[in-house]
Design goal:
The protein is mainly beta. It is 0% helix and 51% strand. Strands 9, 11, 12, 14, 15 and 16 form a six-stranded mixed β-sheet that branches. Strand 17 and strand 18 form a beta hairpin. The chain starts with a strand and ends with a strand.
Length: 362
């Protein structure tokens, strides 16, 4: 009588298909019969004969009689080709059935927008039979669903339900990503969340200010203050054109005058957020009692540098002398690019810095 060896199986979800594999040391097969019993009562819950030359028995969830949360044992008989009788019975294996864990992103839905370069993903793990969570990983994919990054595997040995929290860093502005969580229970059942599609669009600051922190030991607190001065501007056009409802479009020749609440005497720092800048046109004119400051975006070839560049130029005129300073150069420029321009006056030192904080493309 030929030997039949039924291979062990890990626990699985009774609502999903399962394949039992075996080894038969005899003639060519023409079929097999699998018998599954409840491990407590030893009652038969599944017994079926199939015609197949393969060393496997496929179990369909429909009509299998298996339930999650139960333990079963199984044995198999092989039917050799040309024989009316089954060969000897195989060894007995014992296995469990458990429900596949559920993973749900919290606080964010597919298609939502992330407003920062970093994001804390919150995923809730739950399992119907209360099986402990053994390990998890968080995966980050690009817009084409190619893997970019994965977190180290974490082993929390946590009960169900359990909140998984993982930080993701260095997300690029104006990019789409997919997030996915992969887990495994202490019983060996694995599960994957959906691939959550998100878009990154940075929130640009509307105001800049120096924050002063003062220790208040008597009240066990820290006093935070900022010296903000309201600056009112007036447009020469009584019916200006607005961009997105709150920014005045100055590309058509309109201008805004700030003559209340602003004082350029002494040392100061001025930060501007600029978009739709056109070369050679005046972006800013600022005046104190002695000096007129003019800011423009220029285009051309700088000495010692190959190729055409864009750069900002700040000119200071006081009737006696002119002073010109140039910002960093930019190899590319689109009207919809967004820049931060910083003008500083400290003592008699005037400086100009410019940074492209958002590149929209042409």
């Amino acid at each position: 009588m030929a030997e039949t060896v039924l291979y062990s199986v890990t626990c699985f979800d009774a609502k999903l298909p399962m394949v039992f594999r075996f080894e038969y040391y005899g003639n060519q097969l023409q079929g097999n019969k699998l018998t599954i019993r409840d491990n407590l009562s030893n009652d038969i819950v599944y017994e079926k004969e199939i015609v197949s030359m393969k060393n496997e028995h496929s179990l369909s969830p429909d009509g299998s009689g298996l339930l999650n949360g139960r333990t079963y044992n199984a044995q198999l008989r092989a039917l050799p080709e040309g024989s009316p009788d089954y060969d000897g019975i195989s060894n007995q294996i014992i296995f469990d059935c458990y429900t596949t864990p559920v993973l749900a992103f919290k606080g964010i839905s597919s298609g939502d927008t992330i407003r920062n370069a970093s994001f804390q993903a919150n995923i809730e793990y739950s399992q119907a039979e209360g099986i402990l969570l053994s390990s998890y990983r968080l995966l980050l994919f690009d817009a084409g669903q190619q893997l970019l990054w994965q977190s180290p595997t974490v082993f929390p040995a946590a009960p169900s339900p359990y909140s998984i929290r993982e930080m993701i860093y260095d997300l690029d502005d104006n990019k789409e990503y997919y997030l996915q969580c992969v887990v495994e229970t202490v019983k060996g059942i694995g599960a994957e969340s959906e691939r959550l599609k998100v878009r990154v669009s940075y929130t640009l600051p509307e105001q800049f200010s120096v924050i002063n922190a003062e220790n208040a030991p008597d009240s066990c607190a820290v006093k935070i203050s900022a010296n903000l001065v309201l600056v009112d501007g007036k447009c020469n056009n009584p019916e200006p054109v607005y961009i997105n409802g709150d920014i005045i479009d100055l590309t058509n020749g309109d201008f805004v005058i700030y003559d209340e609440g602003i004082d350029l005497q002494g040392d100061y720092e001025m930060k501007l957020t600029i978009t739709r800048a056109a070369p050679y046109k005046t972006i800013l004119e600022a005046r104190n009692t002695r000096t007129l400051f003019t800011l423009k975006l220029m285009r051309g070839e700088l000495f010692g540098m190959a190729g055409e560049s864009h750069y900002f130029v700040l000119r200071a005129e006081n009737g006696k002398s002119n002073f010109v300073t140039v910002s960093q150069r930019f190899n590319s420029h689109s009207p919809s690019d967004i820049y931060t321009v910083v003008i500083r006056l400290k003592g008699h030192q005037l400086s100009l810095d410019a940074y492209k904080i958002q590149e929209r493309g042409a």
